[in-house]
């Protein structure tokens, strides 16, 4: 499938329209929901078409690939906001802090320490979200639900990191609603306002459960890894 600039603009308009409907159904303000265009494994041409359509918020899951996209060919346009939505290694913390405006995947004390140091060194203060492994999957990043309250308290007390949001990536084979409900409950009891949840297949459900950020890739750009 090829994606022309006009079809990318049209995909975006359709996704935004669906966000608006889902918000109204849930009696929420559509403006309170941010669409993150997930540009991992997409060509510069498609990303440029998305920028031309007016999209300013993008998500990437790897630091190096994001650097190639956003410090290489593409201009850093005014108002651009980049979210890191993939796992972060401690040795890439400084690069991540320099490039991203929001880091959504803090999930362990060692990384909190690396990020705190990187923020000190760079003078940059990206917003930090905590990733929660709501499905308790062994292979998946994120802190376990039973440990998250203590972790958030530790971030505030010992690392001067006050998380702005929570993020989750539910197990593929499960109904996502219970995971979204769990993430919202954890956020409420910890006084955290933002929720990054929902992807191409389930962003409307996520909005029903209070998502403030939806991370949408294929529904906007088409399949990954194709020109
Ligand atoms: C790839 C990715 C997405 C987007 O997935 P789509 O199904 O293409 O919308 C969202 N969140 C994370 C963490 C991802 O890695």
Question: Would you give an account of this structure?
Answer:
The chain has nine helices and eight strands. Strands 7-6-5-4-3-2-1-8 form an eight-stranded parallel β-sheet. The mean pLDDT is 95. The chain has 227 residues and is α/β, with parallel strands linked by helices. Helix 1 crosses helix 2 and helix 4 crosses helix 5. The protein has helices at residues 5-25, 44-52, 63-73, 93-99, 109-122, 148-158, 177-189, 203-208, 218-221, and strands at residues 34-38, 57-60, 81-84, 102-106, 127-131, 165-167, 194-196, 213-216. The chain is globular, with a radius of gyration of 17 Å. The chain starts with a helix and ends in a 6-residue tail after the last helix. Pyridoxal-5'-phosphate binds at residues 38, 40, 61, 85-86, 169, 199-200, 215-219.
The strand line-up of the biggest sheet is 7-6-5-4-3-2-1-8
Beta-strand percentage range? 5-15%
The count of β-strands is 8
Class per helix and strand makeup: alpha/beta
Instruction: List ligands, each type once.
Output: pyridoxal-5'-phosphate
The oligomeric state is: single chain
Low-confidence stretches: none
- Shape, principal axes of CA atoms: globular
Q: Mean pLDDT, rounded to whole units?
A: 95
Radius of gyration: 17 Å
First CA to last CA: what distance?
8 Å
Number of helices: 9
Order of helices and strands: HEHEHEHEHEHEHEHEH
Q: Report helical residue fraction.
A: 40-55%
Major β-sheet, in short? 8 strands, parallel
């Amino acid at each position: 499938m090829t994606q022309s600039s006009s079809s990318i603009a049209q995909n975006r308009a359709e996704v935004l329209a669906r966000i608006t409907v889902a918000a109204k159904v849930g009696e929420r303000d559509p403006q309170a929901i941010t669409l993150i265009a997930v540009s991992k494994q997409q060509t510069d041409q498609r990303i440029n078409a998305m920028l031309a359509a007016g999209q300013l918020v993008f998500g990437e899951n790897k630091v190096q690939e994001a650097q190639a996209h956003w410090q290489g060919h593409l201009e850093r346009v005014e108002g651009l906001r980049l979210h890191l939505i993939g796992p972060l290694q401690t040795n890439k913390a400084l690069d991540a802090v320099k490039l991203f405006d929001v880091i959504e995947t803090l999930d362990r004390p060692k990384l909190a320490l690396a990020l705190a140091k990187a923020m000190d060194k760079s003078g940059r203060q990206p917003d930090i979200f905590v990733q929660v492994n709501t499905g308790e999957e062994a292979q998946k990043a994120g802190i376990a639900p039973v440990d998250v309250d203590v972790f958030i308290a530790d971030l505030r007390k010992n690392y001067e990191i006050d998380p702005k949001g929570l993020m989750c990536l539910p197990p593929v084979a499960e109904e996502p609603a219970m995971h979204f409900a769990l993430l919202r409950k954890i956020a409420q009891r910890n006084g955290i306002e933002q929720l990054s949840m929902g992807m191409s297949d389930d962003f409307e459900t996520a909005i029903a459960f209070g998502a403030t950020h939806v991370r949408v890739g294929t529904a906007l750009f088409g399949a990954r890894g194709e020109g």
